[in-house]
Specification:
Chain lengths: 603, 328
């Protein structure tokens, strides 16, 4: 995973942009590469095809030249003067001279129309020499008869001999580059040739033809004769001096085809075409040059690829930004909400997921705001009700009455009772004032009630009795402070006070499952329990409890500030499902049920 | 963090943009470089009919096509126009070609101009004739000493005890002449009993060489071998020998080639001539100049070699191309 960490971007915007980019890069790369490959193959094929065509054309042209020479030599050989000349025995005499002149005219007439033919010459075995060049002085017979064209033609015995390109030195002070075609002519005697007929082709014809061919800047064409010597090569000197070499053997043995050859670190692409007469026309391409044009294509492909890439990347960044804009807005709004600005609203017009998300978001913030307000309100309530509870407990009237009772008892000399009442009052005050704890052990709450009941008992001159039956197990459980006192107060003032008979108050307590039940029972006049229950329920529904309303009830019901506040506090502190419930029958008494969750003191 | 993400994308985009820009730049630069790869070829003379330089130019063009260079030929009509060549070098400094291939018309006087070329950051390669001090990246030339030795060997064969030989040089102080003479002399000293006369000078004049040889043939009856160190001298000497009817008796070995020399060789007056390879010189000069301009290491001296041509081998496939260059 660690390796992938750099792929985990902090924002979806980045991720989307990167994903797009990767996609685009891959596509572009594949496309560019393919385009390049296909086009470079096409270009290579094209250039090779072009080369092959060129080579073939050159080969054909050269063939035409040689075929022309051949036909000239055949034409000359058929002519009567030449035939007679080759049959002559001696080189002197008037007859010979006449035939020589005729032959010379014949040669000149053949050559005159052709610029590609350098010379036609006949050298008879008898020493007679006739050429188309009347102006030039031919070399003596003994020298000419040693030259290759002569000796080779004699050796070939009537076959055509075609030389490679060479310097022809038939005439004094004349050195011309030619390609020679020579053959023997029949002599007087069967089997002995009468002489050799030579047709020289201007080499410049072939040179021009081949040197005009350009195949790239480095490609060229060269010609090989059957022996493997170079008829034409643009860099003949380099080849002869060993600076360059051609794969002559491979070419000679090769059929007409294109093949690669590598020697001494130089790669060449040979395209061979065989002319007639055993010559080979060879086109040479530099594979690197093909690659060179490939390099150009590579650059072009890469250039366009990158251009497309940049544009596409720009668009992808823009797109992803546009796409992620609502999310970003939502995100920043969320931050505002985090800081407590619940009035933040996110408004998108779009009906898509983001629009729905924004609406839900708005709903959510509204709800949170509501809840927050509720919580604030509830806290406020709690504080108020506690204040009230406190006020209720040390109700001034209660204090006055108690103190009045003490005075009265002191005057009447009931010192015992004075002591009991005063000490109870003192303890009562102490417990109610003591500490700021909200919850106290049930034991303490019961102590408090005990003091309170002691005082009330004395005040009402034993108009009622009381008892407490609380399961010792729950004595250490916690209860909201000052819950029971208002209930007991209620029982005394509304249940027992108006009774003729002495009343009885019983306080019971036990655990019931996870809850604790505390019961305050009296056997007083009773009340309309349904009314009370309904009222409490109504009060609960008006969730933000109206303190004024509570007071109203307490005033109207005359039940002190008690029941509603108690009920309200219980619900606030313990939540729904806990609180007060009344059961009452007329003249039978009332039972108030207090349900609180069982909470042990944490120590 | 989001800003960083966006920054990263921007960075990627920027990188790509830079890559694209650099590719464009490289392409443009390549193109520019190709445009700029002009090489000046400065032969000693551009006069028509100077076969040696024309063949060299063929080699130059052949190599230029291979390395993709454009050749600008700058030369004077007269080989002796040293000032003209200096002016051309100064022009080269102004026009800033990629390289200059110089065939120096003077060993010493061209040094300041050559150093200016080098200081201008232009690759300088000398061909055939160099300049003193190491101004050029490379000298592409015939090893004239080796050529001289070859001539000496060709001349020395068949000489006997008591024979006299002479070297006819063409100009005092020419490095080519000095090296050729040293080569001939060194290879001849090995022949015992040979009397080697003091070197004579033809001043590159056919007439003077003719007169000189005539006098020598008269004065020195035992003279059996003459080494003529350049083409003009060869022609003059050959003429004198032929006129004296001493062809075949007095051996003559020369340098370079011309129609006259070939004619004398065919007539048996000139026994051998040592020819250079101007095509190879031109070819190698351009290749070397291109390599040096590209910052590659090149050999300071490149010998293009020489070939001894005799009557027997003058029409061989290899040699006829040297003797009878095909000039379009």
């Amino acid at each position: 995973m660690k390796r992938l960490r750099w792929l985990q971007f902090k924002s979806i915007h980045t991720s989307i942009a990167i994903a797009f980019s990767v996609l685009i890069i891959c596509t572009t790369l594949v496309l560019s590469y393919n385009t390049y490959r296909v086009s470079s193959e096409a270009v290579t094929d094209n250039s090779l095809q072009y080369t092959a065509q060129l080579v073939e054309q050159v080969s054909r042209n050269i063939n035409t030249y040689i075929a022309n020479m051949e036909s000239i030599s055949e034409l000359a050989a058929r002519q009567e003067p030449l035939r007679r000349l080759s049959m002559l025995e001696d080189s002197d005499g008037a007859e010979t001279q006449r035939i020589r002149e005729e032959t010379e005219k014949l040669f000149q007439s053949i050559v005159s129309s052709r610029s590609d033919i350098a010379a036609i010459m006949f050298a008879g075995t008898n020493g007679v020499i006739v050429s188309s060049r009347g102006d030039a002085v031919p070399k003596p017979y003994r020298e000419l008869s040693l030259q290759d064209w002569y000796t080779q033609a004699i050796e070939a015995g009537g076959q055509l001999v075609i030389s490679s390109s060479r310097v022809q030195h038939l005439f004094e002070q004349e050195y011309r580059w030619v390609v020679s075609l020579s053959c023997t002519l029949p002599g007087r005697e069967e089997g002995n040739p009468g002489g050799v007929l030579l047709v020289d082709l201007n080499f410049s014809v072939i040179n021009d033809l081949c040197s005009r061919i350009h195949m790239g800047s480095r490609g060229y064409i060269f010609l090989l004769d059957p022996e493997g010597s170079l008829v034409y090569h643009p860099q003949q000197q380099l080849v002869y001096s060993g600076l360059k070499s051609e794969a002559v053997d491979a070419i000679l043995s090769s059929a007409d085809r294109t093949f690669k050859f590598e020697a001494g670190g130089v790669r060449k692409l040979y395209t061979v075409h065989s002319s007639g007469y055993g010559w080979k026309t060879v086109g040479v391409n530099d594979p690197d040059e093909l690659v060179g044009s490939k390099g150009h294509m590579q650059r072009v492909a890469a250039l366009w690829g990158i251009l497309c890439l940049v544009v596409a990347l720009g668009i992808s960044v823009m797109l992803s930004r546009r796409l992620m804009k609502p999310v970003k807005a939502l995100n920043s709004n969320m931050k505002l909400v985090e800081k407590g600005y619940f009035d933040t609203r996110t408004d998108f017009d779009s009906p898509n997921e983001f629009g729905r998300l924004a609406r839900t978001f708005n709903l959510m913030t509204a709800k949170i705001k509501e809840l927050m307000e509720q919580v604030v309100q509830e806290q406020e309530d709690k504080r108020l009700s506690e204040l009230k509870a406190l006020q209720a407990q040390i109700h001034p009237h209660f204090l006055y009455n108690t103190l009045d009772s003490i005075i009265w008892m002191a005057e009447t000399g009931k010192m015992n009772e004075v002591v009991r009442m005063t000490s109870a009052l003192s303890k009562l005050l102490r417990t109610s004032i003591s500490k700021g704890e909200e919850r106290v052990p049930i034991r303490r709450e019961l102590d408090h009630i005990e003091h309170y009941l002691t005082i009330q008992c004395i005040r009402y001159r034993d108009k009622f009795t009381y008892e407490m039956e609380v399961d010792p197990d729950i004595l250490d459980c916690l209860i909201l402070k000052l819950v029971l006192q208002p209930l007991v107060e209620n029982a005394i003032y509304h249940g027992i006070k108006n009774m003729a008979d002495p009343g009885h108050i019983r306080i019971r307590g036990y655990a019931e499952g996870d809850d604790i039940m505390l019961l305050v029972e009296d056997n007083g006049t009773g009340t309309n329990a349904d009314n009370l229950n309904q009222m409490l329920a109504r009060q609960a529904e008006v969730s933000g409890p109206d303190i004024g309303g509570g007071q109203g009830v307490s005033k109207g019901g005359g039940g002190g500030v008690g029941l509603h506040n108690v009920s309200h506090r219980l619900r606030l502190n313990y939540g729904e499902g806990y609180g007060l419930r009344f059961e009452s029958d007329w003249d039978e008494g009332t039972t108030v049920y207090v349900r609180i969750p069982l909470q042990r003191r944490e120590e | 963090m989001q800003i960083m993400g966006a920054g990263r994308i921007l960075a990627v985009a920027a990188l790509l943009a830079i890559a694209a820009a650099s590719i464009v730049l490289v392409t443009v630069q390549n193109w520019k470089q190709q445009q700029a790869s002009v090489i000046w070829f400065m032969p000693k003379t551009t006069a028509p009919g100077t076969e040696f330089w024309q063949v060299m130019l063929q080699g130059v063009h052949t190599a230029a096509a291979e390395v993709g260079a454009e050749i600008h030929v700058a030369g004077t009509a007269e080989e002796a126009d040293v000032e003209g060549q200096i002016a051309l070098l100064e022009q080269a400094v102004r026009e800033k070609p990629r390289a200059v291939i110089l065939a120096a018309t003077d060993y010493n006087r061209l040094v300041p101009a050559a150093s200016k070329v080098r200081e201008a950051g232009i690759t300088l390669v000398t061909v055939d004739s160099g300049v003193s001090e190491e101004q050029a990246a490379s000298l592409i030339a015939t090893d004239n000493y080796a050529a001289g030795r070859k001539a000496g060997r060709a001349l020395g064969s068949g000489l006997m005890l008591g024979d006299t030989a002479v070297i006819i040089s063409f100009v005092r102080g020419s490095t080519t002449a000095i090296e050729r003479e040293a080569g001939v002399r060194d290879s001849m000293t090995g022949i015992s009993g040979l009397r080697l006369l003091q070197t004579r000078y033809s001043d590159s004049s056919v007439e003077q060489a003719y007169e000189l040889t005539r006098e020598l043939l008269e004065e020195e009856p035992d003279l059996k071998a003459i080494a003529a160190l350049n083409e003009m001298t060869v022609v003059g000497s050959a003429k004198a020998i032929e006129e004296a009817g001493l062809a075949g008796t007095v051996r003559l070995v020369g340098f370079d080639s011309s129609m006259d020399e070939i004619a004398y060789m065919e007539r048996g007056v000139l026994d051998a001539t040592v020819v250079q390879r101007p095509f190879n010189m031109g070819y190698l000069a351009v290749r070397t100049a291109a390599a040096a301009a590209a910052g590659e290491r090149v050999e300071p001296v490149i010998d293009t070699g020489s070939v001894v041509i005799t009557r027997a081998n003058m029409y061989t496939e290899e040699n006829q191309k040297l003797l009878f260059p095909f000039i379009e």
